[in-house]
Records
---
Amino acid sequence: MESGSLAAKLSGAHWRLWALLPIVALVGAIALFVSTGSSLLDLVGQNPPPRDELDVRRVEFRPGEIKVKVTNPQREDITIATVTVDDAVVPYTLDGDRTIGRLRSTTIVVPFDWVDGEPLSVGVTSSTGIQTTKEIAAAVETPQASAKGFLGYGVIGLLVGVVPVALGLAWLPSLRRASPQWLAAFMALTAGLLTFLAFEALAEAFDLQAALPSGIGGVGLVLLGVTSTYLFLTLLSRRLGSREGTVGGLALATLVAIGIGLHNLGEGLAIGTSFALGELALGTFFVVGFMVHNVTEGLGIATPIAEGGRVSLRRLAILALIAGAPAIPGAWLGGFVTSDVLGVLFFAGAAGAALEVVVEVGRYVARRAPGGLSSGYVVGGYLAGIAVMYVTGLLV
Amino acid sequence: MAKNFTRKQVLAGSLPIVAAAPLAKLAWPSTARGERSATHLGHDKPLEGHAAMIGAEAPAPGGPHDQDDLLVPPPALPYKAGRVRAYDVVAVDRRIEVAQGVFFDAWTYNGTVPGPVIRATEDDILRVNFTNGGSHPHTIHFHGIHPGDMDGVFEIVQPGDSLVYEFPARPYGMQLYHCHATPLKKHIHKGLYGAFIIDPKEPRPPARELVMVMNGYDTDGDGENNFYTVNGRAFYYAKYPIKVKKGELVRIYLANLTEFDLINSLHLHGEFFRYYPTGSTDHFEYTDTVMLCQGERGIMEIEFHNTGVFMFHAHQSEFAELGWMGFFEVSD
């Protein structure tokens, strides 16, 4: 009776005030701590002096000139004192103040006769003498956002994204003739290749975040990317799915295409960035390798449709675009903007999406496949999916 | 297909000529003296190469006469039996600007890196009143001939304590001094060293005398030097070229106290000089480049044959481009 009346009271307008109580108390506690903060510090020792940290975001090469964009990732202001190229102090100009506040950026312009195709290091020394060095694998003129470059990156994106996926989709007629066991095996293969893509993307995201300055909080960025796409796709699959809660056929194929599409966005970004930074020899072999690697992605999209009724060519084309086309904007972004933060988010997002689709495919296989998840076809198909991605990945 | 030069290559090839023009113009001493910038010669194009690193353009800290006490030694005194030469030296921790805008938490003798120039005539009694005003134990270890208890190795001076070093200055030549507390590497690279000149009883010929102590600074603590200098400030004598007269005898007391790197060197452009290793004998080498290990030192004697602007720098290109370079401006 007592608790009931309390609950009744709380269900009134008062609960809003009660909800505010912890926040008010927190503000009070913080105020108390701040007012006595230094004496508390005396009890446990002293802070080590902060070591200046600077984030070299982008290094661009123009004829006779190097442009270095730097950001201050730390809480304290940082003052740029000297700039070195290959361990030599060089004259430079700044587009703003020498002292930059937290998360503020400035661009350093160095007149410099750099050597095409040779490695080079750019160092920025702060007023406290701490030098941040960025190694450039090979100095090449940074592509400008020209119509030609735009077209070039577009073609690269098309070749490594859309074309192989479309080719893989052409397996659809053959898949329609496959027995239920073999179809289950191919579904499992799809799950396998998506698992591989998720791990690959996750590893890439962790790699990239490790290079970020600690102030940006790389691991949190990865988690944010993974969970947001995972939950977004879960929501989407509920919308697309039937009442029983599982998706199949075209809906599942769409989910697979979205998962692969997000991965290809990251892949395009990585290719564009590496090329723009001179870390990548963009040869025929490289493009061929990616094409072979990505053909299997088309197979993954085709398999869920194979069971259902006829699907129009237009639909298939849309699926190919969803899965493959993101490589094009990815390559543009990577080639012209280059942002490690964006890279971390893209790859983490791709990992989350791929994992979600693995779960969807797994549910589907568990319900529909003869013998369920533990059948030899399914287990074999899953392992084969991972193995195929691994082997074709070696080509890149 | 015949290989033609591209426009870019032609432009690159002409760079030395472009760069030489402002330097050539410098060779003509302008009638207006004073704060004339070596590079403000009315160019619209940005200067390149060394031409962009001289005069006001050079990224050096400080004003034109800040370093005079370190560059110009106290005068030599003729020999007088039994004379005492007394110096007060205090070790102090001090944050100093070592390159433009770059500050280094140094350990110094008397507030500068290198420390003050100590000078005596051979057989003078050198008396150095040393006080440790720093936060770590320090000593002064002099190179030269002296009793064992004046060596600055075992007589550690704690913060707040004092010690008087007293011994006859021997032998004549370019000597040096530095802290010998441990860890030795730390105490030297933090800046505790300086020049110690002992003049011969028979005076050397009168000359324009200069002191150059070569050093380096590891500002980010990775065991490698970020900057190299003479007398403590990167590019200082590029910003403020040393003005000398054609034909006058220029005598440079040179020492190397660079930590971390095996050797340092000095190369003079457009001229040869007599180099007396350690300066304690008449033996000399006629050259334009000398190489010194840490602790090595010597005396250079130059008579410039030509007027103009002549570079001097470490002939380790890296050291030169990290601050160890400067210019002589030779006029009639």
---
Amino acid sequence: MKISINISELSRTHWYEYLSRFLFGGATTALAGIMAKRFGPGIGGLFLAFPAIFPATATLVESHERKKKQRRGGHGTLRGRKAAALDAAGASLGSFGLLVFAIVVWKLIDSIPVWATLLIATMAWLITAVCAWRIWKLC
Amino acid sequence: MTDILIRVLVGGFVVSLFSLIGDLLKPKSFAGLFGAAPSVALATITLTAIKEGHAYVAIEAYSMIWGAIAFFFYACVSTRILIRGKWSSLLVTTSALFIWGAASLGLWLALVR
């Protein structure tokens, strides 16, 4: 399946949906810091892999797909939820990348600068996630 | 207080950026990869490294491994429930956060502590 960029999706997203993502993401990041301060880096570190984007994205995907179907005269509820399920399947494949990101940071942070660690870890996340998706598509 | 405010702003920006990238991509399953982007980690690691040092970040990153495995369970459960089409995405993805919490804490308590 071909990967493409659909700019028109931007116009379908309302300002309050962007705001809710910003606030949820900000709150989660602050929570990770608070948990680390209160319970130590062991517990705080768990929150670095908190599903911060996924609930908002899945909800948005469902809403957009439902509205799209409704414009064509259908009900759209089931279609919306199935689209959200596909998004969730992608997120589960992306979690392999998240795991590799954590391992790379854990192994490299003491030996190279922070910016270089994050750059390598982010590249490792992207490559792993895309490879996992490609393999899933082939199966 | 300033530290929390910086985290809210940086975290909000990074999470929004990754979700925006996910919005633009097709097919949906590929866009979903960005739902598991290391957005919180990217937003906090630099701040933590400056304030607490690299050894502290290494401990956090080691714990993040268990959080990422818990994320996998969380996303798989969400997929299985959503595909049946009975409940809304909001209900499924927010209730399943308890699975992420229980799995990550359980793994950490069993294997790390």
---
Amino acid sequence: MIRIIPTEFLKKLTGVETMVKKAFTFLMLGGLGAILLKFILSFSEKTALPEVAAHYIEKGPSELGSANIVTSVVVTYRGLDTLGEVTILFAAAAVVGLLIHLNRNENAVRREGSELLKTASVLLFPLILLFGAYVFINGHLSPGGGFQGGAIIASAVVLTVLASPNRKIGHTVLSVIESLSGLFYVGLGMAGAVLAVNGFLDNRIIPLGEFGSLFSAGLIPIIYTVIGLKVGSELSSVVITLNGETVEEDD
Amino acid sequence: MIGTIAVSLGTALVLLGLWSALTNRDIIRMIVGFTIFDVGIHLIMISIGYIAGGTAPIVSSLSEVGVSYVDPVPQALVLTAIVIGLGITAFMLTYAVNMYNRKGTLEIDKFEELKW
């Protein structure tokens, strides 16, 4: 093939190209910086709550029985958004699994974790699981909830995977837990639609209980437990898939 | 005061993250840049919901008066945004793994198929 344009000229051209790219980058960041600077300068802390937030804080505890207002917003007032969020997380986990599964390296051997890490992971694994469960069961009383607890549970799996990356971990149990909890979550929402006054995902189909105790706030602890199991198993399966050594138990 | 500091920090993180994502040629570094950008946006959203002198919106008893709380709605939104950001990061990393498997490199300049 005959090159019409000399190589030296092309090299110069790519030099010019990267310079133009850099100039554009700086121009864009500078513009964004100017906009954000204007935003910072005009920013003043609010002294009163917006109307919706004030309603949530005033009426939330007596209406839904949850001490943590963020939890009552996430699980009940905006429960449909959370259902969508769980769906997006499920889609992400499924796509990650699919893309890795298409071209995984069966023969890759990874360096084993050190003796220290292995021993510590065996010791810490049940403790981290317990802490994750504690965080999602107390989601309506203290900072925490299903997503946080699920992430903590997945971090236990990360530790195990780091300690022994060559171990084969089956996906079956995780996917069964994940599907069952997803189904149970939607089922609880539908039960709210049939039995409660306020429709889908209402937490008042069982008695609210005494404010501030563990068994209170109606369905909220149950829904958060289900979300915690779902998120924990989803994130764990993402981590195990990204480790690339997964083998389905049935194939 | 705290709100203004948080907004400034968030803005700095947004600019840093975008700068890192746009100027690095390594895909993993770009993903890290996007994650920093994400964190900056979360910080800005949280501080918009800050009420001067407010505490975390966790009520200790049904009949309490005179305690001011911060806005719980942005906090719930950011909780959602963190989870979605995590999903997107996992997705981007998966793409990075796939791209590495195709070409054996993570330099973005080596991927010329969609260049014009």
---
Amino acid sequence: MAASFQQALTHLRSTRVWKSIFRRGPALTNRTRSVAVFGNLFLHFLPAKVREKSLRVRATYYLGSISFLLFAMLTITGILLMFYYHPATPQAYRDMKDLRFVVSNGVFLRNLHRLAAQLMVLAVFAHMFHVFYRGGYKPPHEFNWVIGVVLLLVTLFLSYTGYLLPWDQLAFWAITVGTNIISAMPVLGKYVRFQLLGGTIVGENALLRFYVLHCVVLPLVAIVFVAVHFWRVQKDGGLTVREPDGPQKD
Amino acid sequence: MDPKKTSHETGIASDALKNPQRVVFVTRKTSAKVIGEVSGQVMTYPHLLMREAIAFYILVIVLVLVALVWDAPLEQLANPLLTPNPAKAPWYFLGLQELLHYFPPFVAGIVIPTLVVVALVVIPYFNVNVQGEPLWAKNGLRRLRAFSVILIVLAAFLAAFEAWTVLAPTVVIGGIIFYSYFVPPGGSPRAEYLRTRPVSWWVMTWFILVAVVLTVVGTFFRGPGWSWVWPWRSHAG
């Protein structure tokens, strides 16, 4: 059964249509396996070969991959949620109620989005600390570490802007507390807060701005930086697989 | 091929014959060698991609299972006139909110987060611990003295602000660093591990411990008026 399935797959990959789509036949040789990676727009930022050591679970715990996969999950569930959401007060809150009582699987959808969001913040933090302890920031990976710090901030800001959208008490006061801190910034504080909220209080304008930031601006920024981040891993010679911090063994 | 480009890529002056530049220094009876092993490599397709796919499947299954039973919270409609006590930020900012309880807003809300971000950004550019040299490897006694002074000043500063939830993890880490100085070489693996940690490792561990303690305290141990509460006791309101 397995063999015939393999054969069928190989046969499928040898067809003209498959070749026209993927620009290659079955990946039976290392050459075609390489082409499978660098001949594919969505995979070409990956190296064609990776070090065996970097595949070990303990080398990464897949934390970077998990962060990215969570981002993908959040994009999908987020787009689905957008179908049911109006960034206006108090309609936003009514939409939450609709998700709970009217929309099929609405609760599940929102749970999934929220859970993935919390986990993504955790995963990104864990990824950063793990990279630090592995010494992954050392040359030639310096700039990719900096991009990683930017991505951490983008992740936090994404999570934070999403926090306001349900427009319940939890959302409103969390954002009020958070944005009040910005006012403590000298000179620019009041101005930045005003620009972020579109006013002096957390109101309708703030909801709209956070919505646009959350659904359009920040995801685009994240996608660009994630692309550079991945691409740089390859360009900088793959993952760090040396011993974790401590005296290096030659 | 354009010769200029090649020389630029290898980092050698364009006219190597005219201006010779030392690339490697080979002493007698040795040969130039690259430090580090050449480990085995495997094809990304299928080895890496298959693992990524498995990770994705497991992740989705776990997410779906948890999302089926754990409901996202939804409180009453936002009401600017009704302030909850305490009003809390999202959990990942509760460490900052805890700091705000001790320090003026400008320090806790602006200076400290900015310093943290700047510190994170500059880590790779200050040759932080490229060698991974243990803290006590050189000038042990002098470093111990310097460290003691830093720890005492920091502890006194935190005590002056009554920032107990920052002070506690700081003292714990400080105590372990202190202990690591007196660990004799060749002890148990755990003691040996502590003894050989570099400065950067200690600083990061201290930072993470403080951040975790502050976040946990802010999330579970703070009640009305940001007073200390025990999460396992029920509170009126």
